Each structure stands twice: as C-alpha cells, then as structure tokens.
C-alpha cells in the first residue's frame, strides 16, 4: 500500500513538474532598429505580465530574446537614449515561440538638447549590409556642410562636383532617417545641408523597398547613403534667393525653397541666367515644384514637376591623330553653332505599406524638343587626304509616358509571400534634319584637287517604341531552422517583357539646280521589330541575423523578329540563355563581415546591331548590322571584406571583382576604297571572346589618440584584356590601372590640417571607344597603346580664432601622357599644375577668397600657353544669422585661360580647346535660409 501511494505521488509530481516546465517554455525573439532600418544595440527591453517581470538589452545586431515566459500575454517596453519609447501588447498563439520581426524606434523630437559625450565614441560600426559612421567621432566645425563631413570618412570619396563613391562604386541615392528626401539625389543636397544636424551616416547595400519588405534579397544591391539626424533635427527650412550681374552681359535671378517636416516635404525653384560665353549667348531657365506627404501611417505620395529651357552657343577647335595598321590619319576641326533645348518632366509616386501588404506605383510623363544648328570645317591628311565642310540643322521632339506598379503580400502562414510587378511605357521621337556636306578629294601623290562634291540631304526620322512588362515572385516559406530568428524559403519567379519598335528614316537628296528633293530608297529605312523576353528563375534563400545566402538559376528564352518593309525581308532571332546566381553575406564576428556574389547576365543584340541595313547618316562612317549575332553572356564575381576594431577604431575595407564576357558584341572597323581611290570607314558588328577584367580596391584607416590624428591608405589595382577588330583583324589590348593614395588628418578646433599624396597610372585608355567622337568626325578607329601617369600632393590647413578664420590650401599635380607610335605632331604631353588658395573670415562678417594656379603645358598639337589663373572674391554678410550677403567676384583676372584638354577616344588622340570667355567680373546679392529643428545653421560655400 505504501509503495502504491509512493508511486502515485511520484507520478503526480512528475506530471505537475512537466506542466510547469511547459508553461515556462514560452519564448520571445525580437529585432529593434531605427527608422533607417539600422539595428540599435544596448536598448533596454522590459517584458511585464501577470506572471512575468523580465529585462534584457539588445545585442550588437539589434536582437533580443526571452527564453522562459510564464504568461500567455504580456506588455513590451523598449527604451534608449535619443529615441521615443516603444510600447505594445502581445500574446502567444498555439505556438510557444513568438517572433517580433521589426520593432522600429523613432527619434525623440522632444529631446532638443544634444547629448554630451565625454568619452570619444567609436567612429565606425560594421553590420550586415551596412557600414555606420558616428558623426560625433569626427570634426564638425561651424559652417561645415555635409560634404565636409563625408570627406573625413574612411572608404568614402567626394570630388569637387559632389559625386560620392565608396570602394569604387558610385552612390547617388539619398535618404534621411530611412525616408525619401526630396529628389533622393546625393549630389543635390550634401553641399546644402549642414553637418551639424548629423548623428550618424550609414552606407547601405540597398536591395530595394520591395526586397526589404519581403526579406527576399537576391538582386545586385546599390549603394545608398542614409543620414540619421540628431534628435529634433528631422525638420527644417533651407533655400536661397539672389540676383547677380556683371561683365559679358551677365544677368541672373532666381531662388529655391525647401520645407521639410519629416515625411512632409515641399520645394520650389525658379532660376534664370544669361551671359556671353565668348561664342555667343548662353541662357538657361529652370523651374520645378514638388510635394510629398503621408496620407496616413501606412500610405504616402510624392509628386514633382520640372521644366528647363537652355540656349547655348559654342565654338571649338580640335586636333586629332588616329592610329591604324593602314597608316596614320590626322584631322584638324573647327566647329561652331548653337543649341536650343526645352524639357518638361512630371513624376508621381504612391506607396502603401502595412504589416502584410506592400504597394508602390509610379507615373512619369516627359516631353523634350530641341533645335540645333552647327557648321564645321574638317581638314584630313595622312592615309586619307580630303577636306569636309558640314552644315547640320535639326529639329526633334520626344514625348514619353511610363507607368509601373509593384506589390507584395505576406500570406497567412507569415512564412510565404507573393510579389508582382507591372509596367508599361510608350515613347516616340520625330526628327527633321538637314545635312549639307561638301567633300573635296585630293590625289594621294600630287595632293591636287580631284573632285569637289556637294551633297544636300533632308532626313525625316520617326521612331515609336512601346513596352509592356509583367512579373511575379512566389516565395514558399520552409520549416524553421534551429535558429528561430532565421528563415528559409524557395522562390519561383517569372518575368515577361514585350516590346515593339517601329522606325522609319526617309532620305531626300536635294538637286543643286532645281532645289527639288528626291526620295532615295537606298539611303532610307523602314522596319518594325517585336521582341519577347522571358525569364524563369528558381532559388533558395536562407537568412538569419548573422548569415544570408541564396543561390539559384535563371532560364531566359528570347525572341526578336524584325520586318524590313522596304527590303521585303524578315529576320528572326531565337535564343535560350542560362544564368546562375549565388549570393553570400556573413557576419563573422562583431564588426567583421564578408560578402561573395556571382551572377550571370545575358545581353541580346540591339536593333541597330542586328539590322542588315546601311545607316548612311554619316557618309564617312557607314554602319551595317549583323543579323547573325549571338547574345553575349557576362560572368561577374564580387567579394567584399569589412573590418573595424571597436577598441582602437582601426578599419579595413577591401573588395575584389572579376568579370568576363562570352560572345561579346564589338565593332569591326574597316577602311574601304571609294570611287575616287580614297578611303572611307564602315562599321560592322562581331562576336568575340577573350575579354576580361580583374580588379581590387582597399581602404585602411588608422585613428590615433582617440581619432585626434588619423592615417589612411587606399588604392585600387586592375588589369584587363580587350579584343578589338581593325580591318577584319582581331587583336588584343592589355591594360593596367593603378591608383594609390595616402592621407593624414590632424583634428583640432583651432588648427585642423589634412594632407594627401596620390599616384595613378593607366594604360590603353578607352580602347573600346567608350567616349566616341567618331559619329561626329568620322575618323578611323583602331587600338592605341597609351599610358598616363598622374602625381598629386595636397595640403590643407585652417586657423580658427574667435574673430579671425583663415584657410589655406596648396596643391601640386603633374601628369604625363605617353603613346607608342605617336608622331611629332602629337608629342608626349606633360602638364604641371601648382595652385594655392586661401580664404579668410575677419570680424565674423567679412570674407576674402583667393585662388591662384599656374599650369605649364608641353606636347599639345594645338598652340597653347602656360596660363596663370587668379580668381578672387570679397563678400560682406549682414543680419544676426548672416543670411544676407553681398559679394564681388573676379574670375581669371589676367585673362590667360585657354580651356585646353587632351583625351583619348578609341584609337584617336584628341586635343581640344573651347573658346569661351574666362575673365568675368560679377556682383551678387543673395539671401540664404538654413534652419533645422528651430535652430539656424550657417553653411559656408566650398
């Protein structure tokens, strides 16, 4: 009996214990981020309920977890400095694990007093898809703009035009606090926004809003710049208004205003400028308005309209040497003319996002029209001896309409999602062009005139293009991995693109005596093409807080059918392509990440590359398509490694990339004899193999004395092999590009100083005609072996006192160009430039600016001088916030500017001078607005 009772009590105890254990087995996992979707570490997380009072903090990646929650419902409170508290109620369903995927903390707009950091903060933090810079670790002085701050950040480069690059990749998209900011263009705002409002700067690998919503990140990301503002600084007004006048018939008037209150953004702009640029009148008028706002917490919209009108007179002279196996070819070209362009652009966006639904729509309407008149005289000698005089007049109109819709839906099981996209576009172009070409042919031996030929043509061009796109993506969530915060899925995608293009070019030759135009069938085209491109993809994706990878493959059938009406000929091109996809991103440890990706892309031949027609718009360069072209296939491998030491701030960013192309479509330039025993050029298209590019870049930054001093070393290495065809002969051109740079910075409130030395080397510049002028001048193309060396040293220092601010910069640069086989007419060019600039602020309201440079040029084919350029300005600021300014500017006081440059185009070496006025005196009155969070910020010009 006692044994039976003992057994009974033991059984009951075990059952009760099991029940208690089961009750304690509830688990909560969560993720906390800011409005920019960047994880927040060390946030306080408090869980309270009838049976629970638990506390924890978020880790480096923003994650938190409670493993033993007794109650079935609870309240969650999350708090951290600089953000509004988050509160919400939750309850468990039948499952004992609750995942709260994205808790977003908003900046505390009421916390207007900045937090004073006694210890020096860590300058960098590296996370999956994001590199974050803490603005408090860098020097921000009064009057600094956002570009001044960006220039201090390791791995980022900002040029004089405010173009931003990171590890060799351009960065154009801007967001503030994770939200769209007016035009979203980095270049438009980093010189206008004050650095003083910035708390953090984040460089993000952005896969797009739709991918961020579904969590399916498979496409190649772009670099996005996200600015996190200090508390209370997510609103402000900034803009300017001014009037100016000066020599060379200068007159300008205009202004802009931007009103920003978080998601509510309104802007307006109107500017007019006119002057004599040395060739004639240069006028520009631009205007635009935009507005964005939230309809409710899930819905927002954005609309903008821009217009522009530009009129510009130009004149230039060029000397050109072109290398070819048949001989060397020289040209001297003088041209002048005037262009007039008008453009209108309307854009509307609509976005809806809830916990389960994402919707994004866009409508764009544009209209452009322009007129152009130009004349040129082109003298040619060498392997070709002839002179050409051209007059070109044209009128064109180009309307376009585009609309797109993207949607995503999280399905009931919360693991799977369905996404789709629709797009439709229509555009047309109408051009009426008059071309008069007077060609004088010379005997090669005697150089006597053989024939003087005048051809007047009228070309009427009509192009109409319509496209329709449709696609869907179904992601099937699989069983949860052991890591309950992770997810895995299978993805099936399908995309369809339908295109229709109708093109007609009618050529009329005008009789010299009767002036009657006659239609010429052999110089005209009329064709219709239809394209059907499909893509079917299957992939697997795994994503957790430390690892994300996906792999898959795409199958892409394509059909291109062209109907050449006037030839009575139809050409069909069917292809089936395969492209694999691999992507890996891993957080190895805190502040250490690595990424690796491979993707294959298909490129189908364009209509112009396929059509077997003679494009004779330029009689010296007749273009003929190849209907037997095969599609090209590119292989691209990219890898990145990022590391930062949280204790000493040392950071390292590296990248490695390789690409090669199978069946790459290249031009085959052939010289053929004409009827007068001279030569003219034909351009055809061929498939070829053997092209590749291998490159790497790196940036090492070493901060010293808590970032008071820093040394950084960065650079890139690249080698390439490129195949070109010259007169049906294939040859390879190997190139090397090297860039090395060493920077040193001393951070000081009174005497900040920076120094830089760099070296760059490149060979085989532009061998594939990436910047062609052949369409204008019709010169012979080939491959050229050309080498460029650039040396640069730069020292910048400031003295900042209470009533006096002085900034000085000394710059030394030396460039040397060498070419194999170049004649005496085009000697190796050397260019030495020395510059000094200084800016002073006296008694807080007077500003003096002086910029000088001396350039020594040798080796140019055009007559050149060694100019000494002096620019100076004096300005006085008024009002308490110095928002009103009166200034006097003098550019090129000694009138020595010559606007001379050398560049490489294909196998041609080009020396060019544009004859524009350089000595200009200007008087300007301007009023600037710069207020953020109710506080005025001065933004000094660079």
Explain what this protein looks like in three dimensions:
With 942 residues, the chain is mainly beta. The protein is 5% helix and 65% strand. It contains six helices and 52 strands. The strands form five sheets. The protein has a 28-stranded antiparallel beta barrel. A six-stranded mixed sheet has the order 8-9-15-16-13-14. It has a four-stranded antiparallel sheet with strand order 3-2-5-6, with no helix packed on it. β51 (920-932) and β52 (935-936) form a beta hairpin. The longest helix is centred in the first third of the chain and has 22 residues, at 2-23. The protein is globular. The protein starts with a helix and ends in a 6-residue tail after the last strand. The model is unreliable at 1-5, 7-23, 111-118 and 765-784 (pLDDT under 50).
* Tally of strands: 52
DSSP helix count?
A: 6
Shape: globular
Distance between the termini: 97 Å
Most strands sheet: 28 strands, antiparallel, barrel
> What fraction of residues sit in β-strands?
over 45%
Rg calc: 32 Å
Share of helix, binned: under 10%
Structural class: mainly beta
Mean pLDDT: 84
**Which spans of ≥5 residues are poorly predicted at pLDDT below 50?**
1-5, 7-23, 111-118, 765-784
SSE layout and pairings?
Blueprint: H1 2-23, E1 26-34, E2 44-48, E3 53-57, E4 63-69, E5 73-79, E6 86-91, E7 97-105, E8 124-127, E9 130-134, H2 146-150, E10 156-158, E11 164-166, E12 169-171, E13 173-176, E14 179-185, H3 186-189, E15 198-206, H4 209-214, E16 222-229, E17 235-246, E18 250-261, E19 264-276, E20 281-296, E21 299-322, E22 329-353, E23 357-382, E24 386-410, E25 417-442, E26 449-477, E27 487-510, E28 517-519, E29 525-543, E30 547-564, E31 569-589, E32 592-603, H5 607-610, E33 614-615, E34 621-624, E35 632-644, E36 651-662, E37 664-673, E38 679-688, E39 691-704, E40 709-726, E41 729-746, E42 753-763, H6 774-777, E43 786-800, E44 804-819, E45 829-842, E46 846-858, E47 868-878, E48 884-891, E49 900-905, E50 908-914, E51 920-932, E52 935-936
Parallel strand pairs: 1-7, 13-16, 34-38, 37-40
Antiparallel strand pairs: 1-4, 2-3, 2-5, 5-6, 8-9, 9-15, 10-11, 11-12, 13-14, 15-16, 17-18, 17-51, 18-19, 19-20, 20-21, 21-22, 21-50, 22-23, 23-24, 24-25, 25-26, 26-27, 27-28, 27-29, 29-30, 30-31, 31-32, 32-35, 33-34, 35-36, 36-39, 37-38, 39-40, 40-41, 41-42, 42-43, 43-44, 44-45, 45-46, 46-47, ...
